[in-house]
Specification:
Number of strands of chain A: 20
Mean pLDDT of chain B: 85
Radius of gyration of chain B: 24 Å
Oligomer: heterodimer
Number of domains of chain A: 2
Structural class of chain B: mainly alpha
Shape of chain A: globular
Largest sheet of chain A: 6 strands, mixed
CATH superfamily of one domain in chain B: MetI-like
Mean pLDDT of chain A: 92
Shape of chain B: globular
Number of helices of chain A: 8
Strand content of chain B: under 5%
CATH architecture of one domain in chain B: Orthogonal Bundle
Helix content of chain A: 10-25%
CATH architecture of the largest domain in chain A: 3-Layer(aba) Sandwich
Strand order of the largest sheet of chain B: 1-2
């Protein structure tokens, strides 16, 4: 039995369908991520789980028990808020111990578990400080410890990294993964950052306009996006409009007008229909002009632009039909920003395993 | 221009760099005002309390016929008669009762205003301030008419009713200003972590509103101590307070030295209380305790 079962849940605010007929089931011990653009309904879904909202229709079940009419303070579900919402008049220790006091634990037990929690998030030396004396990262860890200390069945994390700078975010992301593994509590993590989602999750649900577009493991969502929205939202993708020439059992042949034919892995498609072919920049190879074809798909193009990012350089390659592909190349040799110049004729290619066909 | 500071420390507005001359120019008028109209009169009062009353009011000069006329007579007089201590004590009790009643009435009201829709808040605050639009004495006379039929007129209860009525807005406004700034996320967090409605109030809302409670209390307690019009109009002969006593010395008995002494002792009493309150409030105001 799933830990949390979300059955056809909808929630509207006036005319806005914030959450629209969502079904999900989340297993115990999972690190589950809800990702989507701002306003896609992921925060509303989180508030429905926490109990700050009740669904208009549908039902939520925790451990098989309905959550209808159960107040937030009665749910074994704790939240780490985006703003952290630390109590400013309480010390770090008092903040973290708060849920234990609410649960009526004995002073002895509170003392022990507080010490464990402080050690877990490396804040033992800050126990007597007030929140305003802490850095952003430290506040974040207090909020985490406070959410975890009473061992909720579910910990909800509402964009907990959004307020941190990039370097710290990376570090805390790693800590978060280790922490979840250590405590074994089910995490539901909400973010609009696809990178965070890919880095931390066992499974990702991509949300858009109140409904769920795809639920899968990170590499599945990234490698086999189900539709254009997912392909475009998760990572960078090149989308080429195509027409299906042959939908065989062992391969798919797709025609790109003005460029040529793509050979791809078999997929659900009907001969003659139109769709899009999605392929990631790092899956593209750039080959010197005139070299013999060695990839399944290889087309002529011209370097239109390049963008140096340090570890990699992004090249924009214009195809004969005017479409532009982004190709990423690792900068193996130091001290060089690029290996190709604007206007240089090249070939761009990829293996048939790379990229997916998306039906319209 | 401001100096760059570590990003994790909130910037203290007092630490922005400004030319010293600007700082002087800005702070000069209020400083002069306070020196002229607050410190100077206070010092004059200290002097007056040591002087002798003139035969027809006013003061005997400190140096008369080459003889120093200063003495501690008024202080000796004050401490020689219990009646003064009793009036002082009664005044502090009335002030405390008024403050407490104002707090109990104002808190729910301030909370409701702070929780009402943003569009309505300004209107509600305006309604709280509306009584100020009519004259203070007229409003007190109205209470004479209101309290008359209930046999309450000229009792301590009438005095406290009038005091609470007049000072209520001074409690509501600081409380409202405080409660309005509370981050609703804190209450959600407390609820999320298992706190019921009553616990949320006692553990989150009330402690966070203590600064508002302290400033509202000061704004009610201190003026009530010096108020003489309300006890005079609504109270009986036995309900006089320090304010009446002081007024009597200056206007009726023409004993300026005793009036000055009473004023000074009142000021000292208030400062002592304020000091104690500040000490009691410190742990709540984000100190290191």
């Amino acid at each position: 039995m799933a830990l949390l079962e979300i059955r056809h849940v909808s929630r509207r605010f006036g005319d806005l369908k914030a959450v629209d007929d969502v079904c999900l089931s989340i297993e115990a011990g999972e690190f589950f991520t809800l990702v989507g653009p701002s306003g896609c309904g992921k925060t509303t879904l989180l508030r429905l789980i926490a109990g700050f909202e009740e669904p208009d229709t549908g039902e939520l079940l925790l451990d098989g028990q309905t959550l209808a009419g159960v107040l937030p303070e009665q749910r074994p579900v704790h939240t780490v808020f985006q703003s952290y919402a630390l109590f400013p008049h309480m010390t770090v220790a008092e903040n973290i111990a708060f849920p234990l006091q609410m649960a009526g634990r004995s002073p002895d037990e509170i003392r022990h578990r507080l010490q464990d929690a402080l050690d877990l998030v490396h804040l033992a030396d800050k126990a007597r400080q007030l929140p305003h004396q802490l850095s952003g990262g430290q506040k974040q860890r207090v909020a985490l410890a406070r959410g975890l200390i009473n061992k909720p069945r579910l910990l909800l994390l509402d964009e907990p990294l959004a307020a941190l700078d990039a370097k710290l975010r990376e570090q805390i992301t790693a800590e978060l993964i280790a922490l979840q593994r250590e405590v074994g509590i089910t995490f539901i993590f909400v973010t609009h950052s696809q990178q965070e989602a890919l880095a931390v999750s066992h499974r990702i649900a991509v949300m858009n306009a109140g409904h769920i577009e795809q639920v899968d493991a990170p590499e599945q969502v990234y490698g086999y996006p189900r539709n254009r929205f997912v392909a475009d939202f998760i990572g960078t993708v090149n989308l080429l409009p195509v027409e299906v020439r042959e939908a065989g059992n062992d391969r798919l042949r797709l025609l790109v007008a003005g460029v040529g034919e793509i050979v791809s892995m078999p997929a659900a498609a009907r001969t003659g229909e139109r769709g899009a072919f999605a392929v990631r920049p790092e899956q593209l190879d750039i080959i010197a002009d005139g070299e013999r074809p060695r990839l399944d798909n290889q087309f002529k193009g011209t370097v239109q632009d390049h963008l140096y990012l340090g570890d990699v350089t992004i090249y924009k390659i214009a195809l004969p039909n005017g479409a532009v592909l982004e190709a990423m190349r690792a900068n193996a040799a130091p001290g060089r920003a690029r290996f190709l110049e604007r206007g240089e004729p090249v070939q761009v290619g990829w293996r048939r395993q790379a990229g997916v066909y998306l039906r319209d | 221009m401001t100096e760059s500071q570590p990003s994790n420390r909130p910037r203290d507005p007092a630490q922005t760099r400004r030319a010293p001359l600007t700082r002087w120019l800005v702070s000069l008028p209020p400083t002069l005002f306070l020196l002229t109209f607050f410190l100077a009169p206070a010092l004059l009062m200290v002097g007056a309390s040591l002087q002798q009353p003139g035969d027809f009011g006013g003061l005997v000069p400190a140096l008369e016929n080459g003889r120093l006329t200063l003495s501690l007579d008024t202080y000796r007089f004050f401490f020689s008669d219990w009646i003064y201590a009793e009036i002082f004590l009664r005044s502090f009790l009335v002030a405390a009762a008024t403050t407490l009643l104002c707090l109990l009435l104002a808190y729910p009201l301030a909370w409701l205003i702070a929780r009402s829709h943003r569009r309505h808040r300004d209107l509600l605050v305006l309604l709280v301030l509306l009584p100020f639009a009519s004259n203070f004495l007229i409003r007190i006379y109205a209470w004479i008419i209101l309290l008359g039929p209930f046999d309450l007129l000229y009792t301590p209860w009438a005095v406290i009713t009038g005091m609470v009525y007049v000072h209520l807005p001074f409690m509501i406004l600081p409380l409202y200003t405080n409660l309005e700034q509370h981050d609703p996320a804190l209450l959600e967090a407390a609820q999320d972590l298992g706190a019921g409605a009553a616990t949320r109030f006692w553990r989150i809302t009330l402690p966070l509103s203590l600064p508002g409670i302290w400033s509202g209390s000061a704004l009610v307690f201190i003026p009530v101590l010096g108020m003489f019009a309300i006890p005079e109009l609504l109270g009986g002969t036995r309900d006089i307070l320090i304010g009446n006593l002081i007024k009597e010395q200056f206007l009726d008995n023409r004993d300026w030295p005793l009036g000055s002494t009473l004023s000074l002792l009142l000021t000292v009493g208030v400062l002592l209380l304020a000091g104690l309150a500040a000490r009691a409030a410190r742990p709540w105001r984000g100190g290191t305790a």
